[in-house]
Structure formats: structure tokens, C-alpha cells
Amino acid sequence: MNQAAALVYIVDDDPSVRRALTRLVKSAGYGVEACGSAREFLDHARTERTPACVVLDVQLPDLSGLELQRELDARLPIIFLTGHGDIAMTVGAIKAGATDFLTKPVHDGDLLRAIGQALVRSVEVSKATHELEELRSRVGRLTVREREVMNLIVLGLLNKQVACELGTAEKTVKVHRARVMQKMKVSSLAELVRMFDKIAVAKTPLQAARLTRFDQCARQPVAR
């Protein structure tokens, strides 16, 4: 990772802490932007910037660090700093997606290690986000019927069962299935299932509720 391209936001209402952390982070080769409040950060932060992370004080004059974390909604990795933290607060922050929770005064090495890990996570999240956007774009090219066919074949249904479920001919399902594979750019059902799991295209029906009907479909000839 190019450290010079990485950006670390420091959000702390104590000017002396901001200055000290800014010097430390700059000494490691990272870019730095320091803010004295949550609102100042929200007004200036570029949350789409990658790689980037936030070193965030829990106690702020406007929004608390935990409230700001909810505002960001995982758009940037967060390292919490606090002089007032407790176990419950730490657990809550980590569950909400914080990468680390350090107590002031923080050791320089511990903070730089946490920043490095957060920036790596930033890159990974950005890649995953772009991949998800691409997959959703592929889904957007499917017709309504093709989505219905995909929702069923990823459950492991045979073409005959899909045809029975949708009230159409098996040969028609085969055509739709081929188009789904082409538009989703996959060569196997297993690959399509992995994609489907990532994007959660639609709420699929519970298999258990359909077993009887699927068994009936398997036994009956489908009208063509």
C-alpha cells in the first residue's frame, strides 16, 4: 500500500491531542486531516477516499464517537480512542464495526499498528464494494422472468421443477437459464450461487414450504 496516498482522519476536541497525533501519523508517512468535532469531520470528510480511516475520540462536544460511528455506517474503518471507556462500550463499538478500541494515553506503536490494519481493511472494503456494485449491475440487466428463474435455480431446483413453479415450459426455463448464466457472466451453477449469496438479490421462499409442490412437479409432466 502506498502510505503517501493513505489518509488518516483524527477527530478529537483536545487541540494538544490533535497536534500530537497529527505529528505521529505524519511521521509514519500518512496524510492527515484533523478535526475538533464530529460535525466538522462530517462537513469535510471524503468518505469515498481509499485507503482512509478515522482515529476517533469517544467523548466529543457534539455527537459522541459512537453516534458518529452510526452516522458513518461503516463507510470508513474506525479506531476509537478513549480515556473513559469500559467493557460494554468497547464491545458495542467493535460489534458496530470498529477495527480497534485503544485507551489514552495510547502507545505510539499500538496506534500505528491499528492504523495500518484499518487502512488494509479500507482497501478490502473498497474492493468488495466495487465487486458488489458490478454484480448488482449484472442483475439489473436481467428481465423479471430471468430473476425469477435465477431465484429458483440457486435453490437447486431442476429445470422441470422451475417450470412447474412458474407455470411455464421446461424448454422456456432452459432458455432463461442460459440467458441468466450469460448475463451474470458465470460458467457454473456453483459460481452463480456464490454470486447470489453476495448480493442477496431477493428473499427466496423457504425450501421446506415448497418441498411437497416440488416433488409433485418432479413426478408430473410439464405442459409445453
What does this protein look like?
With 224 residues, this protein is of the alpha/beta class. It has two domains: 3-131, 3-Layer(aba) Sandwich (Rossmann fold), CATH 3.40.50; 141-219, Arc Repressor Mutant, subunit A, CATH 1.10.10. The protein has ten helices and five strands; from the N terminus they run E-H-E-H-E-H-E-H-E-H-H-H-H-H-H. The protein has helices at 15-27, 38-44, 65-72, 87-95, 108-140, 144-153, 159-166, 170-184, 189-199, 207-219; strands at 7-11, 31-35, 52-57, 78-82, 100-103. A five-stranded parallel beta sheet has the order 2-1-3-4-5, with helices on both faces. Strand 3, helix 3 (65-72) and strand 4 (78-82) form a beta-alpha-beta unit. The longest helix has 33 residues, at 108-140. It comes from Paraburkholderia phenoliruptrix BR3459a.
* Name of the level-1 CATH class of the largest domain: Alpha Beta
Proportion in β-strands: 5-15%
Q: In sequence order, what are the helices and strands, one letter per element? A: EHEHEHEHEHHHHHH
Mean pLDDT: 83
Share of helical residues = 55-70%
**Total number of domains:** 2
CATH superfamily (homologous) name of the largest domain: Response regulator
Task: Write a concise synopsis of the structure shown.
By secondary structure, this protein is of the alpha/beta class.
Question: What keyword list fits this structure?
Answer:
224 residues; Rossmann fold; Arc Repressor Mutant, subunit A; WH-like_DNA-bd_sf; DNA-binding; 5 strands
SSE blueprint:
Blueprint: E1 7-11, H1 15-27, E2 31-35, H2 38-44, E3 52-57, H3 65-72, E4 78-82, H4 87-95, E5 100-103, H5 108-140, H6 144-153, H7 159-166, H8 170-184, H9 189-199, H10 207-219
Parallel strand pairs: 1-2, 1-3, 3-4, 4-5
Helix pairs in contact: 6-8, 7-8, 7-10
